[in-house]
Design a protein that fits this description.
With about 375 residues, this protein is an alpha/beta fold. It has helices at about 5-15, 30-35, 45-65, 80-90, 105-115, 130-140, 165-170, 190-195, 220-225, 240-250, 260-275, 275-295, 325-335, 360-380, and strands at about 20, 70-75, 95-100, 120-125, 145-150, 155, 160, 175-180, 200-205, 215-220, 315, 335, 340, 350-355. Bound molecules: pyridoxal-5'-phosphate.
Length: about 375
Amino acid sequence: MKYPDVIDEVRRIMWPKPLKLFTAGPVACFPEVLEVMSLQMLSHRSDEYRALHKDTVLRLADFLEAKESTVLLIPASGTGFMEASIRNAVTPGGKVLVTIIGAFGKRYREVVESNGRVPIVLEKPPGEPVLPEELDEALKKNPDVEAVTITYNETSTGVLNPLPELAKVVKEHDKLLFVDAVSAMGAADIKVDEWGIDLVFASSQKAFGVPPGLAMAAVSPAVFEKAEKIPGRGWYFDLLKIKKYLDSQWSTPSTPPIPQIAGLNAVLRIIEKMGGKEAWLRMYAERAEKIRRGVRDLGLELFAREGYYSPTITVVKAPEGVRGVDVYKAMRNRGFEIAKGYGPVKEYTFRIGHMGYITDEDIEELFINLREVIEELKGGK
Ligand SMILES: *Cc1c(COP(=O)(O)O)cnc(C)c1O
């Protein structure tokens, strides 16, 4: 028996009208990803599942240039690994240098605090990156921190931190480095071994363009060694347990999101067919450049400091007298789901996400409509 009516019923809830997505995540997915995700389920203890898990881990490790580190795939959103980094690799009551350039850096501070560790904060105003000399100074002042956290791409402000330079400073001070690359991985380069990152994590629903539910990370041997000595790691996010299941059976302690892993596998294959990592990252860089050009052509200003523009999201200052949320609403009425401003700069910005399945024609249509919307709003209509 098949019940096509239930599909229509659900579709009417989710998609009462068509929308082109320029979101901060979840983002639009490749058709191949959605198709592979509709395959029938299989046991996560079967040989077939193990083959899928193994192939996906190896492909992602290759993409991240992580030979010494271990790639973990778990059922969670990216924030799960944020919590795991603190619970597994920082002593209870120990100090962590948390760098903050926007809303997601603040989340890291909350995760540190709520897990009974002590955040030492290095905070920059919204729109600014962390600079290597500032990080160096903060580490000189606080030699007793066990780890440093960095938001690679701050999704609330559209700033890409200079991660390779910052990582170098962290290594000079011999601290563990945890990187929130949730909106960077898949679009901004990451060289895990070469840059010396101890734990870098992301979510499926951002730059890889896969539905939400899968978190991925590359974890260094130093983190696993440290975890041996940390009490109270819990069960669900115990990195040693997760690694044990990976090493012994190419699977996870609890049930993995099999469709998302199949989806990620498909994307990693698409990347390969499009010419590999470099070609893929170039596609993202060119798309971002095109969107920034479109914004400037409308006479609007970018929020991020020049030279630190995000490859995955552009934050735009709304014109004088126009609220960011009104731009969002007007665009939605025209069939474009952009992203509202987020965090402290919410009122006077709006955001255009560039992640996932977006065509050049989509971008052209977006700007034709955005031009009209801005004119209307400026005219007070
Ligand atoms: C989206 C996002 C998160 C949160 O990711 P979840 O998958 O919702 O846990 C964290 N950090 C950054 C930089 C993000 O863009």
